[in-house]
Structure formats: C-alpha cells, structure tokens
Design a protein that fits this description.
Elements lengths: L1 H19 L4 H19 L3 H27 L12
Helix pairs in contact: 1-2
C-alpha cells in the first residue's frame, strides 16, 4: 500500500514541483513514470506490490480515457478552451 501511495505522490508532487519551477508538468510525469517503471519496479517492489500498482494505474488510465472520450463526443458538456488573442 505504501509503494502505491508513493507512486501517486511522486506523480502529483512531480507535476506540482514542475509547475512551481515553471517547467513542463507532463514531461515531469514522463520522467517520474520512467523512474518508477524501470528503477522502482525491479529494486523496491515485490511481485504482489507490482501487481497492485499495475492494476491501480490501469484503472486510472481507463477512467481518464473514458472522461476524455466522453468530453470529445459531447462538447456541450465540456466546452473547448477559448483561444487567447
């Protein structure tokens, strides 16, 4: 459970830190994902922890994809951002 919360904290904290430093938040998430997926997976997680973490992030991915697809198919519900002039 702690390893799962650590991955969530690293993702949100990395994005927040990148925003505070005025750098790319999505790029910070990519770096965090590579770090967790490559280093953390082999050195700090048991097989059970890896399975729980994979299921958790797959669920988050599915939920966000569903929200994105619903938003794209129903623009009246989620309006498109306005262009700045």
């Amino acid at each position: 459970m702690i390893a799962l919360l650590t991955t969530l904290a690293l993702a949100t904290g990395g994005y927040t830190l990148a925003a505070a430093l005025r750098t790319s938040g999505p790029l910070a998430l990519v770096v965090a994902g590579l770090f967790i997926g490559n280093r953390g997976r082999h050195f700090a997680m048991s097989d059970e922890t890896r399975a729980h973490r994979d299921i958790f992030w797959e669920l988050i991915d599915a939920i966000l994809n569903a929200v994105h697809r619903i938003g794209r198919s129903c623009p009246a519900i989620i309006p498109a951002p306005q262009e700045r002039v």
